[in-house]
Write a structure and sequence with these properties.
Structural class: alpha+beta
Order of helices and strands: HEEEEEHEEEEH
Number of strands: 9
Strand order of the largest sheet: 1-2-3-4-5
Helix content: 25-40%
Strand content: 25-35%
Radius of gyration: 25 Å
Distance between the termini: 60 Å
Number of helices: 3
Number of domains: 2
Length: about 170
């Protein structure tokens, strides 16, 4: 199967056909949900490789690619290089997902007179109704309170303690 046939099959949803998604060409590999494509480096001389996960519009990874022996053409892709690129691109995506999760979910633990209280802030970045949920749980995971707050609410030890001291009333904006 040529690269164009594989691309057309991919676009038409024929991925369940045996071998429909496996292309092993010197500058294009499609396998296991990933596409590796060797491209001309836009930033200057030489070549680059881009890794695109199936279903994604943008590459997960773009990096420099080695020149071949003739110092003019790119080194051909091979199994070892493709597997390394898949591993690296997967790690990039995993770290990005972790970073997004950390950006939208924060927590602090406060020592209160009633015991340790975990205060959480979960930001919901809705296009039409962005907001956040400020919550509190005891050491046993029992929810003590939950209120809706602005997505810009700053959760830290001071704001969490103030919320607890104010009997979990909704903080003023």
């Amino acid at each position: 199967m040529t690269a164009n046939e594989a691309k057309e099959a991919k676009e038409e949803g024929e991925a369940d056909l045996p071998g429909a998604m496996n292309v092993n060409e010197p500058r294009l590999w499609i396998n296991n949900g990933w596409t590796a494509r060797v491209i001309k480096n836009e930033d200057g001389e030489g070549w680059a490789v881009e890794m695109i996960k199936d279903g994604e519009a943008e590459p997960a990874l773009v990096g420099p690619w080695t020149m071949g022996r003739d110092k003019k053409n790119p080194k051909p892709l091979d199994t070892s290089a493709f597997n390394t690129l898949v591993k690296t691109a997967s790690e990039v995506l995993r770290r990005h997902e972790q970073q997004l999760y950390a950006q939208y979910h924060k927590s602090v633990t406060v020592d209160a007179p009633s015991g340790r209280i975990k205060v959480t802030l979960d930001i919901i970045p809705d296009e039409y109704d962005p907001h956040a949920l400020l919550g509190a749980c005891d050491d046993f995971g029992e929810q003590l309170a939950q209120v809706r707050v602005s997505p810009g609410f700053k959760l830290n030890m001071s704001s969490a303690s103030a919320w607890i001291d104010n009997d979990f009333r909704r903080p003023s904006p």
